[in-house]
Write a structure and sequence with these properties.
The complex is a heterodimer.
Chain A (H helix, E strand, L loop, with lengths): L2 H19 L5 H8 L2 H12 L5 H8 L5 H17 L23 H12 L2 E3 L10 H20 L3 H33 L3 H15 L9
Chain B lengths: L9 H6 L2 H10 L5 E3 L15 E6 L8 E7 L2 E7 L12 H10 L9 E3 L12 E3 L2 H19 L4 E4 L4 H10 L4 E2 L7 H12 L6 E2 L6 E5 L9 H12 L3 E5 L5 H5 L2 E3 L6 H14 L5 H7 E2 L1 H7 L5 H8 L3 H13 L3 E3 L14 H14 L9 E2 L9 H4 L21 H5 L5 H10 L7 E5 L9 H9 L3 E6 L4 H4 L3 E4 L8 E4 L8 E5 L11 H11 L14 H10 L3 H6 L3 E3 L17 E2 L3 H5 L21 E6 L13 H6 L4 E5 H7 L6 E5 L4 E9 L6 E5 L28 H6 L13 E6 L1
The chains are: A mainly alpha, B alpha/beta.
């Protein structure tokens, strides 16, 4: 495996972290934040990619030390930024909110759904959010990359190229067009640094993706 | 760079197995997705979710049938269902806005609880998303605790008095199911119950076949009840005459042959004089009166004092105009008085219930009650309800106890099972007749109440406020637990036509899978009942579609059959006029014995409205609705807001000149209980002694990103009441007296 492919793998791992970071902060995940397991893994991956994680660490350090308090503050902030809030939900994490007329379930939601289908995926039965949620789109990007690597490892270079093409197309056509506007809203509205830093990292990871190398 | 506090060492990282292990540690696998089995994989070109869904618009009660056009499971377009016998394939501007409600980014998406114990205007609730189990558990355990310790009456439910909400509140055992009717149509309801139906009121008028339509404050064409507008236009094209009494040049008035800018609150005087004219000049339908009415002689005697000249002195309508219109109305048949909720016979003035009595009398005198071109009584199909499908134990006797809004003290309205928004806040604050500990609001907002700030104070005293709603309206901001409700696009079943139901009509409701974790009210409240230990009221199968199945069976059809017929079922039998009515005498009771038995005037009698203008408050307040607004629920729609962002104070040109106000300038409209800041709209189309404010604006919930801070809420100007004040007004409908308010206006 050459260096570029290695970097790409770490990029995919970072996307996994990004997808988790933009998913609702449940108790199990907050526990891994509090004991620094999850931030440690994420920062290590970022380091491999040459992305500074000082701001991210600082945000983690500023979470309440008590795990229950940390969970509540993250949940309040997530609900406020991304679900419903006073003031109004400032940063709906859906592509459709930033394109067209700003309503949800717009053309971008349908485009995401079609891309998932084309890749052989359906939304899970217990998945209750919209198809163009940021965490879902990023998980899809990571999965496509992992599928490409898996294909490569079985010698199916054609399949690997197809998966990479799907991934790059989805990144450019589906994720990048709204990401900047979303991140600006998170920056402007965030009341604690955690999701502001996650938004910064989202931009770093999704606008400066390393080029995939398909040779083994 | 790694934080010095981070315990995650390079060694640990290597243990993960490099990038692959890190990916798993950070959040690997498929969480949002599931692989599509190869054999079942649909092609993007022909997804299974494409096609049409039939449904019924839920924006207003007109119940227009729609067709939702799907693309990959999302609705991309709405159109009217061309098979709808009444709406005839048309939706109004509000109907089309429903799609934007479904996909509004501000919509409530998940159950939530507040983490901030402080409540109030602009206070951040600190919501966190919770599971349905947690939400239902929280509500059920607190409700059970309250019911056990304080009695079920300590739980107040605010919502429409339809089947499932009634079942929920009765199963809990609380008498306090408080509905909005006293702000809407309770005056009409009690009058129709006492004089005609023995039950409530129907909302069908056969405008198409009318030759003379007389309206008092009725603005059906300006309410976007689209079939009424179409029907009335059709009547006008066929030569019908339309006369509108209204202090404001409403949309309907602008289409009328005559607009008569009557003094507010005096419609009753004109109506009494018109009745006198028709009776004395023997212009009435003698046959209809003889066959189908009681009390004519007493009526004739009672109205003798009300001459057109007398009425002219009160109403500022010339006596000859009153007499002329009375004669035209009686001679041009079929003739009808236009009816709908918030017209002059609605809950606007202390004398409005007498006005509503006069509507019935006029319709009766010209023989148009339940006759072509007149007011049509109930033609809905008779369908089974909850008690017909399930044999339930008797509800707790506590449901018949005294109410916090005092409704039982007004027995005619009480029998109809409605409620009083006007008296709720004072009842809670006074803790009389008992303390209230919790409230459950279902799709009703604080801004729909008179004097909302007072209700906020009342709700702040409660241990728990639960809200089931679609959007984060003001009441949601006060909620301890938020239960995100389905929209009408996500609720299946059937819709039975109530408005303009000339014959039984039913529309199919096909449901879109609910978005997010929203759940329907019935499903959620049945779970709450079970968790409260009220399982005896939730028999097996109740939360499924068994009630709808029973109703379809009663209609002799199936959902599949209705779908195959284009989403509509109908029984287009020719109108067979009723020869018996629902009163005790089976007649139309011009002299209403039910009123007499309950201590109210059996005949209409002139009484002055409550609020007179004074030098401090020199203008009459008028309240109306714009055709594109849905009460307080549509102002967050950015498309509607783009062309009408905020409400206005409509002021006469001459009045504006005296006040030094120009159109577009901000003014304060102030009553003895509150004031609102709105922009002035200056027009000759309103009486100089009136100020009109349109309803729906003045939202202060920050959860509404578009609507917040735009315009002012008319309800802030309207006093709420104690039960004594309410009863003292002598209205059997316990009306809110929305427009019985004098105000002042000045530059902001």
């Amino acid at each position: 495996m050459d260096r570029t492919t290695d970097e790409w793998r770490f990029w995919l791992a970072a996307l996994r972290g990004l997808a988790r970071g933009f998913t609702y902060p449940d108790a199990d995940w907050v526990a891994t934040l509090s004991d620094r397991w999850w931030p440690g893994a994420f920062a290590s991956v970022l380091k491999r990619l040459g992305i500074p994680s000082d701001g991210f660490w600082e945000a983690v350090e500023r979470l309440p030390t008590d795990q229950r308090a940390a969970r509540q503050s993250l949940q309040v902030e997530y609900t406020y930024l991304f679900i419903n809030a006073v003031p109004h939900v400032p940063a709906p994490p859906y592509a459709s909110a930033y394109t067209g007329e700003g309503f949800l379930m717009g053309e971008r939601a349908e485009a995401a759904l079609l891309a998932y289908r084309e890749a052989g995926l359906a939304l899970a039965e217990d998945y209750r959010d919209l198809p163009d949620h940021l965490a879902t789109e990023v998980e899809f990007l990571a999965w496509l990359g992992e599928q490409a690597i898996a294909a490569l490892e079985t010698g199916d270079e054609e399949q690997a190229r197809a998966r990479v093409a799907q991934q790059q197309g989805f990144l450019r056509g589906q994720v990048q067009p709204w990401l900047g506007a979303f991140c600006r809203r998170v920056e402007a509205a965030a009341r604690m640094p955690f999701y502001r830093e996650m938004a910064h990292l989202a931009e770093r990871l999704l606008f400066a993706a390393p080029a995939p190398a398909l040779s083994r | 760079m790694r934080s010095p506090n981070a315990p995650f060492s390079r060694r640990q990282f290597l243990k993960l197995g490099g990038a692959t292990g890190a990916a798993l540690a950070l959040g690997g696998g498929l969480t949002a997705f599931t692989p599509i089995p190869a054999a079942a994989a649909p092609t993007p070109a022909a997804p299974p979710e494409d096609g049409l869904l039939y449904g019924v618009c839920g924006i207003c009660s007109m119940g227009c049938a729609y067709v939702a056009h799907l693309s990959n499971g999302r609705i991309v377009r709405l159109s009217g269902n061309p098979n709808d016998q009444t709406a005839q394939g048309k939706l109004c501007v509000k109907g089309y806005s429903g799609l934007r409600l479904l996909y509004d980014p501000d919509r409530l998406k998940y159950p939530m609880k507040r983490t901030n114990p402080q409540k109030g205007l602009g206070v951040d609730p600190g919501w966190v998303k919770i599971t349905w189990d947690e939400a239902i558990g929280m509500v059920a355990s607190r409700f059970k605790q309250i019911a056990d310790n304080d009695g079920p009456q300590a739980i107040v439910f605010v919502g429409r008095p339809t089947s499932w909400p009634k079942h929920f509140t009765k199963s809990i055992g609380t008498p306090n199911h408080v509905a909005h009717n006293n702000t809407c149509y309770s005056t009409h309801e009690v009058v129709w119950r006492a004089m005609v139906t023995g039950t409530g009121k129907t909302w069908t008028v056969d405008y198409e076949h009318s030759k003379y339509v007389l309206a008092f404050g009725w603005d059906g064409m300006g309410k976007s009840k689209n079939h009424w507008g179409r029907a009335l236009n059709s009547a006008l094209a066929n030569g019908a005459k339309l006369v509108v009494f209204d202090p404001r040049l409403s949309i309907t008035a602008s289409k009328a042959h005559e607009w008569i800018p009557i003094k507010p609150g005096t419609d009753l005087a004109v109506l009494l004089a018109m009745i006198r004219t028709i009776v004395n000049e023997e212009l009435y339908d003698r046959d209809f009166v003889a066959r189908y009415t009681t009390g004519f002689d007493k009526l004739k005697e009672a109205v003798q004092q009300y001459t057109p000249e007398w009425a002219a002195g009160i109403s500022e309508v010339p006596a000859e105009t009153i007499a002329r219109i009375a004669r035209e109305f009686a001679r041009t048949r079929p003739a009808v008085v236009a009816h709908h909720k918030r017209d002059a016979g609605g809950p606007n003035y202390t004398n409005s219930w007498h006005t509503a009595q006069c509507y019935v009398i006029l319709d009766t005198l010209v023989g148009s009650l339940d006759r072509p071109g007149g007011h049509i009584l109930d033609r809905k199909p008779k369908l089974p309800d909850i008690a017909d499908v399930w044999k339930l134990p008797e509800y707790p006797k506590t449901v018949n106890g005294p109410r916090i809004d005092g409704l039982e003290k007004s027995p005619i309205l009480y029998k109809l099972g409605k409620g009083s928004f006007s008296t709720l806040a004072e009842g809670i604050l006074a803790k009389h007749p008992y303390p209230v500990k919790a409230a459950f609001f279902f799709n009703h907002n604080i801004l729909a109440f008179p004097n909302p700030p007072r209700l906020v104070e009342a709700l702040k005293t409660l241990e728990m406020v639960v809200v089931s709603d679609i959007m984060p309206a003001e009441v949601v901001q006060l909620a301890d637990v938020v239960l995100p409700d389905n929209t009408y696009f996500e609720s299946g079943g059937i819709g039975v036509r109530e408005y303009h139901a000339m014959y039984p009509q039913v529309a199919l409701r096909e449901a879109l899978p609910p978005l997010y974790e929203t759940k329907g009210f019935t499903t959620v409240t049945l779970e709450i009942l079970k968790k409260m230990g009220r399982a005896e009221y939730v028999p097996d199968g109740m939360s499924g579609g068994a009630l709808v199945d029973a109703q379809l069976k009663a209609l002799g059809t199936t959902a599949a059959e209705i779908k195959a017929k284009g989403g509509m079922w109908g029984d287009p039998t020719e109108l067979k006029p009723k020869t018996e009515f629902g009163t005790a005498s089976k007649k139309v009771e011009l002299y209403a014995t039910l009123f007499e038995q309950n201590g109210f005037d059996p005949l209409p009698r002139w009484t002055k409205p409550r609020a007179a203008t004074t030098s401090d408050y020199p203008y009459h307040l008028l309240i109306f609705r714009r055709p594109w607004e849905r009460m307080t629920q549509s102002q967050n729609d950015p498309v509607l807001a783009e062309f009408y962002p905020e409400n206005r104070a409509t002021i006469n040109t001459e009045t504006a000149r005296k006040l030094g106000v120009s159109g577009g300038e901000h003014v304060w409209v102030e009553s003895p209980v509150g004031k609102i800041k709105v922009r002035a709209e200056v027009t000759a189309g309103i009486r100089p002694d009136c100020v009109a404010v349109d309803h729906g604006f003045g939202h202060w919930s920050s959860g509404l990103s578009v609507a917040r801070g735009k315009g002012g809420n008319d309800g802030d100007l309207v006093p709420n009441m104690t039960i004594s004040e309410q009863l003292g007004a002598g209205c059997p409908g316990m009306a809110a007296f929305w427009e019985d308010v004098a105000v002042k206006v000045y530059r902001a």
